[in-house]
């Protein structure tokens, strides 16, 4: 006699429905905010009605000219690129030392690197800004780059250290046995293996730098404001219905820029997959 199996309908638990309901409410709330800002950026006047009185693209051109967004975007890109380059040049060798060497106080050093990443930027931003102004660096691009390096370099170190640990040290030993020096091992052997991790850390630092507000705001000024700081200054300095549309247009430009960076980072450079690939290569060896 053939055994028969009864298929029972799978019923979700109340906690599961609660989680999905919360996620749906959050999604609707977030989508509503984004739609409101986008519609407002194209609106002529929008006060107490459900929809603006008319749509136009003049708000974007007016915001671009009024707030000198060309210069602001240039400063933002320049600061972000400098921070990424310096963070990688400093962070990757430091991560290599932490991954390959054991020394007294290593855990303390790792904790110190972890603090700027975990702590709110404002807690160390004010003393840091005081130091910058005392040395005459306030409101300069130099100060903006330096303060952004404080959380970015530890971020690269913490990102690259586990990545380097997944690389088989036998590769370096074999290269040294063949007569390669430390610099040659690092540049010719490790560098090609570290390129995916460096790209991942660099893109994440780029997105983090563009979106960092507190530290940049404390030391920036005319000619050194990034896009996120320029939005805040425009929002607090201007008033009236027309100014709100200009700020919304700036916000849309900023959000679109961040979304493009995030899509590139998550689509083409996935740190989890990269580490997994290195681990598989190590197991094959």
TrEMBL record:
It is a multi-pass membrane protein. Keywords: Cell inner membrane, Cell membrane, Membrane, Transmembrane, Transmembrane helix, Transport. It is found in: Cell inner membrane; Cell membrane. It comes from the Bacteria. The keyword Transmembrane applies. The keyword Phosphoprotein does not apply. Its main location: membrane. One of its GO terms (cellular component) is plasma membrane. This is Spermidine/putrescine transport system permease protein. It comes from Promicromonospora thailandica.
